[in-house]
Design goal:
The structure holds two protein chains of two kinds. By secondary structure, chain A is an all-alpha fold. Chain A contains 14 helices and no strands. Chain A has two domains: 3-72; 87-327, MetI-like fold (Orthogonal Bundle). Chain A has helices spanning 3-35, 42-72, 86-93, 95-127, 132-140, 147-158, 171-178, 192-218, 222-230, 235-246, 248-263, 267-272, 282-292, 296-327. In chain A, helix 4 (95-127) runs parallel beside helix 8, helix 4 (95-127) packs antiparallel against helix 11 (248-263) and helix 5 runs antiparallel to helix 8. The radius of gyration of chain A is 26 Å and the shape is globular. By secondary structure, chain B is mainly α. Chain B has two domains: 33-91, no CATH class; 103-317, MetI-like fold (Orthogonal Bundle). Chain B has helices spanning 2-17, 34-69, 73-78, 93-100, 109-140, 146-155, 161-176, 182-205, 210-218, 223-252, 255-260, 270-279, 281-284, 288-305, 307-317. Chain B is globular. The chains are: A mainly alpha, B mainly alpha. Chains A and B meet through helix 1, helix 2, helix 4, helix 5 and helix 6 of A and helix 2, helix 3, helix 5, helix 7 and helix 8 of B.
C-alpha cells in the first residue's frame, strides 16, 4: 500500500462523507423549513417538501430523458435534423442489427422457460430432501454476484486452447478432450456461441425462479395433495394437476420477471464477447451505437425498440399481480 | 401504543416474507404422518440425488474460479484448476498483485474497490431516503390526484435504463458539468432506483395501522414528527431489505457506471475495471480469477450473512432495471 493510494482513498471517502452530509443537510433543511411554515397553507408546503425531491429527480432524470430519447430516435446521428423513420429502416435492413434482434428473441424465448423449468424441478426435489437450506443457497448464490463476475466465471469454463499448443484450462473443453472429442471455441463459433451466453443467464436466473417457486410450493395446502394421492394420483399426476395450478400466479410472475431481465441483458454480452461473433443483443447494441460510435439516433431507436418489447410484459405482469392482490 | 406498534411490526414482517404472486400463507411445518414418512423414504433418495447433482453442477464454475485464484500465474496459464487435486499449491500472490501493484498496465483494483464503496453507499442511501418521504406522502397525506400521481411513478418502472442514458448524460455534461464524477453516478443511480423504492416502500408504509398514526396525531405530533418518530422506526426492516437490494444492485451494475463514471481509476467501480480486464483475456488470464473474487466478496458476504434480508429485497425488487 503506497501512501499515494492512502491519500487517494481518504480523499474519496472524504468526498463521500461530504456528499452524505450535504444530502442530509439539504433534506433536513427542506423538512425543517416546511415544518416552520405559517399555519395558512402549511399542509401544502409540507406535502411539497416530502414529494418535491422525488418528483424533480424523476422528472429531470427519467420522464424528460424518455421523451427526448423517443425524439432522438427520429433524428440523425448527432441530433441536428429530423430523418423520419430512417433509423428504424436501418435497423430492419442492416444484417448485423437483424442478427441482434434475432438473438434477443432467442434469449427471451429460452432464458425464462429453461430457468423456470430448472428452478421448478429443483424446488420440487429439495422440497423432499435433507439439507434443503444449503442446497438452496448453492443454486441461489449466482443471483448475488454481478453479471460481469458471472461472465468471468464462465469465460474460464469455456476457455479454449489449441490442441498441441497447451493443455486445456477450461473445464468444458477438458471434458471434451477426455471424451476423445475436438475442443471447441464456445464463444466464437456462431450461431452456437449465443446459446453458451444464454447458458450463463440461465445459470443466474434459475436460483431466482427456484426461491420464489419453492416458497409457492410450500404454500400449497398439504391436504389437497394428500387427497389427490388418496384418489390414486401418482407423484407426477398430483404435481401436474394439483401443485402446478396452485402456483400458477407465481409461475407467471417468475416468467415475466425473468423475461424483462433478459430483454435488458447487457453485462454478460459485454463481458464475454463484447457483442462480437454475432452475439450482440439489443441492449448491448444500443450502448455500442450510442456511446462507442456516437450514433445517437440509431442508439435511441434501439432503446425505443427495447421499451416497446418490455412494455407488454410489464403490463401483463402488473395485471397478474393486481389480480393476486385481490385474491389475497 | 407499544402493543399496536409491535403488532404492526409483525404483520409488516410477514408481508416482507411473502413473495410476489403468492396468495397462500406458507405452511409452517409439515405434519409428518406415518404413511407420509414411508412415502418420503421411497421418493427422497432419488430427489435428493438429483438435487445434489444440480447443486454440484451449479457450484463447479464458481468453485473452479476460486481455486484458480489461489494458484500461481504459471499454473493458471498452463493447465486447469482441477490439477490442484494432483499437485496441490496455494498462493496469495494474485490477490496481492491485483490489489496493490500500481502502474498503468496493472489492475489497480485497490483503487477501484474504494470507488465501488464510495459509489454504492450513497447510491443506496439517497434513493431510500427520498423514496421513504414520497412513500409516506402518498400513503398518509390526503391530496387530490394522489392516486393518479402514484400510478405515474409506478409506471416509470417500465422505462428501461437505456431510454434515459443519452439525455441524462447530456444534462450531466452540458448543463451541470459533473459528468465523470462521483455525484453524477450517485444522482443517476438515485433516479433509476426511485420508482421501485417508492412503490415498495409505499406498499409497506401504507400498511402501518391507521390507529398508530392517528394516536400520534391526537397527541399533537405534526407530519414531520410522525414521519421521523413513527414511520421510520416501523419501516426499518423494509428499509434494510430494500437498502441492501439497492446496494447490491449498484455494486453489481456495469451499464450506469460505464456511461456516467468516465471510466478512469478516479471514479469507475470494480465492475468496469473487470470488464476491461476480461476484454483482454489473453493478457490478464492469471489476474482475472483473483480480480473477480475481489468484486464478488462483498456480495457473497452480504448474501451469506444477510440472506433473509437479501431474499426479501430480491423478492420485492426483482423487476428493477
Amino acid at each position: 500500500m503506497t501512501s499515494e493510494f492512502l491519500t487517494d482513498m481518504f480523499s474519496k471517502f472524504g468526498l463521500m462523507i461530504v456528499g452524505l452530509v450535504v444530502f442530509a443537510a439539504v433534506v433536513g433543511l427542506v423538512l425543517f423549513l416546511a415544518d416552520k411554515a405559517p399555519k395558512r397553507g402549511k399542509d401544502i408546503v409540507v406535502l411539497a417538501a416530502f414529494l418535491a425531491p422525488s418528483f424533480i429527480l424523476l422528472g429531470v432524470g427519467l420522464v424528460y430523458p424518455a421523451i427526448r430519447t423517443t425524439l432522438l430516435s427520429f433524428q440523425n446521428r448527432n441530433s441536428t435534423e429530423w430523418v423520419g423513420l430512417q433509423n428504424f429502416e436501418w435497423m430492419f435492413s442492416e444484417p448485423t442489427i437483424l442478427t441482434t434482434l434475432g438473438n434477443t428473441l432467442i434469449w427471451v424465448a429460452l432464458v425464462p422457460t429453461l430457468s423456470t423449468i430448472f428452478g421448478l424441478a429443483y424446488a420440487v426435489f429439495i422440497d423432499k430432501s435433507y439439507g434443503e437450506k444449503i442446497l438452496k443457497s448453492l443454486v441461489f448464490m449466482p443471483m448475488a454476484i454481478s453479471f460481469v463476475g458471472a461472465g468471468i466465471i464462465w469465460r474460464f469454463m469455456y476457455e479454449y486452447r489449441e490442441v498441441g499448443f497447451s493443455e486445456q484450462i477450461g473445464l468444458l473443453n477438458q471434458i471434451l478432450v477426455w471424451l476423445g472429442q475436438e475442443p471447441q471455441q464456445f464463444l466464437v463459433n456462431s450461431p452456437w456461441n449465443t446459446f453458451f451466453l444464454i447458458n450463463v443467464m440461465i445459470w443466474i436466473q434459475t436460483g431466482f425462479a427456484m426461491v420464489l417457486l419453492s416458497a409457492a410450493i410450500k404454500g400449497v395446502p398439504l391436504e389437497v395433495i394428500e387427497a389427490a394421492r388418496l384418489d390414486g394420483a401418482n407423484a407426477w399426476q398430483s404435481f401436474w394437476n394439483v401443485t402446478v395450478p396452485a402456483i400458477r400466479g407465481t409461475l407467471v410472475v417468475v416468467i415475466t420477471t425473468i423475461s424483462i431481465a433478459t430483454l435488458k441483458v447487457f453485462d454478460i454480452v459485454r463481458a464475454m464477447t463484447g457483442g462480437n461473433f454475432d452475439t450482440s443483443v439489443v441492449a448491448n447494441e444500443m450502448y455500442t451505437q450510442a456511446f462507442n460510435r456516437g450514433e445517437f439516433g440509431q442508439g435511441s431507436a434501439l432503446a425505443l425498440v427495447l421499451f416497446v418489447m418490455v412494455l407488454p410484459i410489464v403490463v401483463y405482469n402488473v395485471r397478474v399481480m393486481r389480480q393476486q392482490k385481490e385474491i389475497r | 401504543m407499544s402493543d399496536t406498534t409491535a403488532s404492526a411490526e409483525t404483520t409488516a414482517e410477514q408481508k416482507l416474507d411473502r413473495p410476489l404472486g403468492q396468495k397462500n400463507v406458507a405452511r409452517p411445518s409439515r405434519p409428518v404422518g406415518k404413511a407420509r414418512r414411508v412415502k418420503d423414504r421411497l421418493t427422497s433418495p432419488w430427489a435428493t440425488a438429483a438435487a445434489i447433482t444440480i447443486a454440484v453442477l451449479w457450484t463447479i464454475p464458481t468453485f473452479g474460479l476460486l481455486v484458480s485464484s489461489f494458484r500461481t500465474p504459471d499454473e493458471i496459464r498452463s493447465n486447469g484448476w482441477w490439477n490442484i487435486f494432483v499437485s496441490p499449491s496455494f498462493t496469495l500472490e494474485n490477490y496481492f498483485e491485483v490489489l496493490t501493484v500500481s502502474g498503468a498496465s496493472s489492475a489497480n483494483l485497490g483503487q477501484y474497490f474504494v470507488n465501488s464503496l464510495v459509489i454504492a453507499i450513497p447510491a443506496a442511501l439517497f434513493p431510500i431516503a427520498i423514496a421513504t418521504m414520497a412513500a409516506y406522502a402518498f400513503a398518509w397525506m390526503k391530496f387530490r390526484g394522489s392516486g393518479a400521481l402514484f400510478v405515474l411513478v409506478f409506471a416509470l418502472q417500465i422505462v428501461p435504463l437505456q431510454m434515459a442514458l443519452v439525455p441524462l448524460l447530456q444534462i450531466f455534461s452540458g448543463v451541470l458539468g459533473i459528468s465523470g464524477t462521483f455525484p453524477a453516478v450517485w444522482i443517476a443511480h438515485t433516479i433509476f432506483g426511485l420508482p421501485l423504492c417508492i412503490f415498495l416502500l409505499h406498499n409497506f408504509i401504507s400498511e402501518i395501522p391507521g390507529e398508530v398514526i392517528e394516536a400520534a396525531r391526537v397527541d399533537g405530533a405534526n407530519q414531520t414528527q410522525i414521519f421521523f418518530r413513527i414511520v421510520i422506526p416501523l419501516a426499518l426492516p423494509a428499509l434494510a431489505s430494500i437498502g441492501i437490494f439497492q446496494f447490491l444492485w449498484v455494486w453489481n451494475d456495469l451499464l450506469v457506471a460505464l456511461v456516467f463514471s468516465g471510466g478512469t481509476a478516479d471514479v469507475a467501480p470494480l465492475t468496469q475495471r473487470l470488464a476491461e480486464l476480461v476484454g483482454n483475456f489473453g493478457r490478464n488470464t492469471e489476474r482475472l480469477p483473483a480480480a473477480a473474487f475481489i468484486s464478488l466478496v462483498i456480495p457473497l458476504i452480504v448474501f451469506f450473512s444477510l440472506q433473509r434480508y437479501f431474499v426479501r429485497g430480491l423478492l420485492a425488487g426483482s423487476t428493477k432495471g
